[in-house]
Each structure stands twice: as structure tokens, then as C-alpha cells.
Amino acid sequence: MAPAIMMAADKVELSPANTGFMLICSALVMLMTPGLAFFYGGMVRVKSTLNMLMMSFISLGIVTILWTLYGFSMAFGTDSGSLIGWNSDWVGLSGVDKGELWGTYNIPLLVFFVFQLMFAIITPALISGALADRVKFSAWALFIALWATVVYFPVAHWVWGEGGWAFDMGVIDFAGGTAVHINAGAAALGVILVIGKRVGFKRDPMRPHSLPLVMLGAGLLWFGWFGFNAGSWLGNDDGVGSLMFVNTQIATAAAMLAWLVYEKIRHGAFTTLGAASGAVAGLVAITPSGGAVTPIGAICVGAIAGVLCAMAVGLKYKFGYDDSLDVVGVHLVGGVVGSVLIGFFASGKGQSDVAGVFYGKHEWAQLWKQLAGVGGVLAYSLIVSAILALILDKTIGMRVAEDEEVAGIDQAEHAETAYDFSGAGGGSAKAAAPAPVGAGAGKKVDA
């Protein structure tokens, strides 16, 4: 998260301004998970709406407890073998004093803890979009707990923890291109290859039931992403956080426009779903790169990601994997694009003096580092996530019964439905309608 999350012994003083700023950023990132729930919830059919909302919301509960008990320690504790961290004082926050500062930064450790917690919450929630309509809620909840423990916590240490192999190699990931988006996208691919396709995939229409809900979710994600990205500089007042804020807006706009242009040329229309998806693709791509590129570079990163992600979402039909809500096409591909393009567009004037192929001495060194980081996280998450899904599928079962999937997973798993139409013009409403004034007794009246 930014270039360093060092725990040096240098004496620093608490900054109330930075502390307040980071608490606001933490709240913004928390809002992204409900935003994601709305985004995904609008993209599914009516019969799966509540399940989709719950698949995101449950992460707020499960990951919060795990992060408190041991996740924070695993991700940011003292390094062991460049693979994992540990600090027994952080287990359950038992040894943390409220006034303890985070390393060489002028914010409390507890503020850093809660900021990073919000990243840990949304990452497994991202995976859920690929599994819409067909996964048991209990199995999903258990998968979140296992996946966070054996995939997210270690990968966060690799990328952002002092001593992690990607961190020490010099892989640039400002706010989560590898640790969040590639991690979640690769996991989504691994799981869907195990659990298989939805009933009726490529045969039945599976259109979004509420595009306004999708747009609302996309707007909340865009809003919260400023905390996600700009907050990852941890409040340091040197202009890099401001650069990241600006680049986040620019890249998102460029990606949305690029996706819409591609969509118009390819399919003949500018769709609201395309606008929302393009915006998210831009947000994903600028997440790792926004502190390293110029605003012009941000336009390039966003536009390239918008087009490539728009192209990638159709691959599921070509290769036959059922990525319900395009998690692979947007988050995996967008994360790869944003991470790799750092090797080309890093200006050397942002978060560090590292320059990409198009700047400075036109060297390729950073590109190879980015490719190593992308490849390592992608392979690990894909393989381990598939193994976890296979174990759960062979033991408790990952999927609901076919008849439950066809009838609707909301009713089967939650005993609820998203919308109640019984009072909106149905027969019961007509039966209860009062007779018009002057109607004779026993006379038939149309309600």
C-alpha cells in the first residue's frame, strides 16, 4: 500500500489531520462493499437478488472477525520467509495500545488496521459475482473464511508487508491491482471451473433485472474508490495522494468512454451496463498504477483497460466458463492491464523515481517485476482457490440443487424475495378494493 509500510524505530508525532483523513477513507472503502452488493444485485435475475446482496454483506461480518483475530498479524506482522507475517501482540489486538502509531507514519496503528480491514472485506466479496445463482450460502460463507486465511492474508503480506517477496522485489501496487483485483479475479476463475455452469447457460436469457440498481452500485463504487486509492498513501502530504485522486477520476472516465465506443462499434448501442462496467474497469486498472503515472498516462491506462475488458467479457462464451457477472473479464483482466502498464507508463515523478519503458532511460526492468508479481499472485490464487472449492464441493457441496436454482436461490437459501408484487395490481389487491360511491348492493363493479 504505497511504497512502504515500514515499521522503523524513527520517532514520529501523531497527525490529527492525517488520522481524520484516514478514518474518512476507511469509511469510504467500507461503503464500497454495499455498493458492490447493489452493483451485482442489479445484474442478476429477480430470483437471485437477495442472495447476491447477502454474498457481499456476509463478508463484512466474517472477514472483520478473522482480521481482528489473526488476519492483520498474518498480513503485516514480522516477516517469515518472505511469505507470511506474524505479530502475537496483534492477535485479537490484545497488545495494541490506542496511542500506538503505525511504523514511521503519523497515524495510529488502529487506523491502519481498520483501513486495511476494509480492503480485506471487499476482496472476497468481489469473487461472488462470478458465482451468482448457484452456490449454497453456507458453503460460500465457509469459502470466504478459508480463502481469506490461506489466500488473501498471505498475498497482502507479499505485496504490502515489509519482507514480502513482491514488496522486496519492487513490484508496484499502489492500492490493490494484484492483492485485490487479480487475486479476486483469479480466485473467481478457479472456483467456477470447479462448480460448473448455471442451469441454462448460453440457452436461457440471463439479463440484469435492474439497471438502475447497477448504476447506483457503480456510482457508490466510484465514490468509495477515492478513499480506496487516495487513502493508500496513508495521508502523507507530499502530493502523491492528490495525484492518485486525480488519476482515479481521469482513468475511470477514459475507461467508461472507451468501453462505450467499443460497444457502439461492436454491438451498435451505448448501454448503461456498458457505462457502469467500463467505469469499474477503469477503477480497477488505475488502482495499482495511479501513483506512478501522469494524468496523460492515466488516460492511456483507462482507455486501454476499457477496451480490453470489454473484449474480455465475451471470452466466457467462447471458452465455455460461466463467469456470471464478468469478474474475470473486469477484475482479473483490468488488474493485469493496470499492473503491467506500470512497466510502460511509470513516469518516475510520482510515488517513486522508477520509470517505465516510455520514460527515463526506457528501461524494461520494472516491466519484468510487474509481470513477476502478476504471475505469482494469479497462479497462487487460481490454484489454491480451485482446491478450496473442490474440497468444499466434495464435502458439504458448493451448489444448491438444480430445482432450487431454477425456482430461485433467494427463496431456497433465504426464505425471502427481493420484491413483493402481491399488492401491486394482483388479484388480492382487486378483491380488497372498495366499491365506488353509489354502487348498488350486489352489483358487479370493476376494481
Automatic annotation (TrEMBL):
Subcellular location(s) of the protein: Cell membrane
Cellular component annotations (GO), alphabetically ordered: plasma membrane
Entry keyword Cell membrane: yes
Key words, A-Z: Ammonia transport, Cell membrane, Membrane, Transmembrane, Transmembrane helix, Transport
SUPFAM superfamilies: Ammonium transporter
Stretches with biased composition (Low complexity): 429-438
Keyword Glycosyltransferase assigned: no
Protein name: Ammonium transporter
Organism (species): Streptomyces lincolnensis
